[in-house]
Amino acid sequence: MVDDENRENEGDLIIAAEKVDDKAINFMATHGRGLICLSLTERRVEELNLPLMSQNNESRDSTAFTISIEAKEGVTTGISAQDRAVTIHTAINNNKSKDDIMSPGHVFPLVARDGGVLVRAGHTEASVDLSRLAGFIPAGVICEIMNDDGTMARIPDLIKFSEKHKIKIGKIVDLIAYR
Which spans of this chain does the record mark as coiled coil (predicted)? Predict the structure, then answer.
């Protein structure tokens, strides 16, 4: 999913959080190379009692990171692809509560603004909107795509990436138009 060239001008891998498994996390870590984050609704963040990482958010695009998390059960060190998938499934499970997670951890939640991409045209909101529109729990897992040399992948790079891995490219602007 790519955002506007006048915004971050980046592409993120996106998957519905409830569809995440160790293979998806490993693909993101290996091929995306960016920070793997869990996009959650404002309501779910409140239910899990996750404070923002910074009360004075000075990031250019107001990305709303919370403190990092880990599942209390079912994980070992927390960093493996399987452990991160377990943490993600714990965090999105409505039968689980703040008592089932701990901090710090190896999963980085983001708060999606209510109203989704119509309010903020970011990858965080796009992942929640796409998951909701597909009939899944409104939560997504995202990872920025970096080139082999560590630079951020731009449209020409992302086209090659999508062809190589046989994945589609979506645009946030198109999601906004659809909504």
Answer: none
Amino acid, res. 72: K
Q: Which amino acid is at 110?
A: L
Q: Is the pTM of this model over 0.70?
A: yes
> Which residue, chain included where needed, has tokens 């994980």?
75
Tokens 């509560």 sit at which residue?
97
Q: Are 20 and 87 in contact (CB under 8 A)?
A: no
Per this entry, what is the length of the chain? 179
Provide the CA 91 distance to its chain's centre, in angstroms.
13
Q: How far apart are CA 116 and CA 63, in angstroms?
A: 13
Which region holds residue 64: left if phi is over 0, alpha if psi is between -120 and 50, else beta? beta
* pLDDT tens digits along 16-54: 999 999 999 999 999 999 999 999 999 999 999 999 998
Question: How far is residue 49's CA from residue 83's CA, in Å, rounded to a whole number?
Answer: 21
Peptide bond into 104 cis (omega under 30): yes
CB atoms within 10 A of CB 106: 17
Q: Which domains does the chain have, with CATH numbers?
A: 13-150 (3.90.870.10)
Distance of CA 104 to the CA centre of its chain: 17
